[in-house]
Amino acid sequence: MRRTERLVGLLAVLVLTASCATVPTSGPVEHHQPQQGGASNGVQVAPLPPAVGATQLLVVEGFLHAMGTYEDGYRVARQYLTTEAANRWHPESGVQVYADGYPPAETEQTAVLIAPVTGAVDATGVYRATGGQLRQDFGLVKDDEGQWRISNPPEGLLVSRYLFATGFEPVEVYFGSTGTDVLLPDPRYFPVGESALTRAANAVLEGPSPWLAPLTAARPSPGVVVDSVVLHSSGSAMVYLGGETSTVTAERRELLLAELVFTLGSFDQVRTVQVNANGAAWTNKVGRSELTPQSFSDLDPVDVAGDRPAYVVRADKLQRQLSQGNWVDFVEVQAGFAKVGELAIARGSRQWAGVTDASTKLVAGTVAEKGSRVLREGSGLLRPFYSRTGDLWSPAAAVADWLIFHDGSELKLRVKGVPKGRVVAAKLAADGSRLAVVVAHGTTTSVGLLRVRRGTNSVVVEGWQAINLNLLPLNSVTLLDVGWESATELALLRTDVDRQTSVIVVSQDGAQLSDIGPSDATGLRSLLVVPGRPAMSVSAGGGLYRFDGEFNWMISSSGVSAAAYPG
Questions:
Q1: Whole-angstrom Cα distance, residue 360 to residue 516?
Q2: Apex CA 478: angle with CA 119 and CA 460, to 5°?
Q3: CATH for 311-564 (3.30.499.10, 3.90.550.10, 2.120.10.30, 3.40.50.720)
Q4: Are 425 and 483 in contact (CB under 8 A)?
Q5: Strand, helix or coil at 523?
Q6: Which tens digit of pLDDT belongs to each residue from 408-460?
């Protein structure tokens, strides 16, 4: 499911009625077709120029609507401004996003918009969750023809949450990694329209966001530029590069091809990508010029290919799904299994690890072979997890007690920047570069990301970046667990003051957030999530619940003490 679909569904119910009242109603009916380069995530109505005799309020409402629909130069939006204001307005400088349900108000002299701010997008498309109160006085004045015009526009674009969700395309821009041999996703947001593909390709050449930059490979020569991106009706995207393309080495060209292909693959309409550099077609290492993400499958940060059956511990036995689509039949893998309360299965289903003895021992073994060995003892041990390279992470309530094992040997680990408090849960992204951590501070909890840098025999974890969860009314919520649902989306298990538990899906930048249920399962205690497989949750009573659609979670097994997906 694309990241915006959940948010649009939630916002449409809340604001469609209010939004209709703010669109200018005079003038001819026009039909808007999504432009070639973007994908519309909701209903878009073409902006109309200001009507003759429009009131101050209608002028401001028309301007706000025009800012939410992309067109080259925002020509219609500029018609709502005075000549001087139109000349100094820079819509490309960034976006302020404000809460829905706050229409502008007309005063005796002007019109003002007062609303809570929920986020901002910078000129490169990076979203940052923010707070505070917006007060935009539009400075209405009459022009030479006696028509109201805006003399004080915002510096960039100013859009509501709904118009942000429907008018901006979420794109995962990919960059080569310095340490994990896979591409790393960097979420961006570009206006829906013919420029979205070109903006995305430019973002690849311009480089990653400051937070991700320490983990990424060197960029190509700054002399390489994107001339244009053309999307054909067949779904083939042609990227035309110019500038100093001859200075790009063969190795760097291969990586740049992969970055462009994965990035443009974020668009639903794109089926294949071709790159032309100053008239010459670039090919990958096997000589192909028409490329898809599968052409670089070894660089896929998620890697959903392969068998990933669910494992459960039940009645002192380790059991596995008979097949990935069969949630009824579980076959016995190992009898006399350790009484683990938390389970991890390595990718490839060869190794397992678990926490036993009231979270005081970490044990590990080989799947289908009897016996286990104790790797560590201590208090407050949390659910372990494996990285794609086979490292076994053993987080604990105290950051100082975290350990990592590789082939049974302990790696040197340094963790910096985690807020003070008790760690509740932690999970590594599939690419191994980002660690999601839930921290409890007294009676409250928060979630954030950390960068992971893997050396030869050491690991550095740093760069705490909190994730804002203020987009939904989550009063008195406690976070219990975390997992990665996709390359850039987290699933969070939460409970409220009534002890009702449910799962939240949030983008790693906090731009999009939704509650997906369940609506009738109570007492969920752990969450099991990997990209490409249905989310699972285990209840305190041993029920294994499986996600089967928003607010629809099926009971798959009972008597389960722990469960896990490989990887």
A1: 33
A2: 70
A3: 2.120.10.30
A4: no
A5: coil
A6: 899 999 999 999 999 999 999 999 999 999 999 988 999 999 999 998 889 99
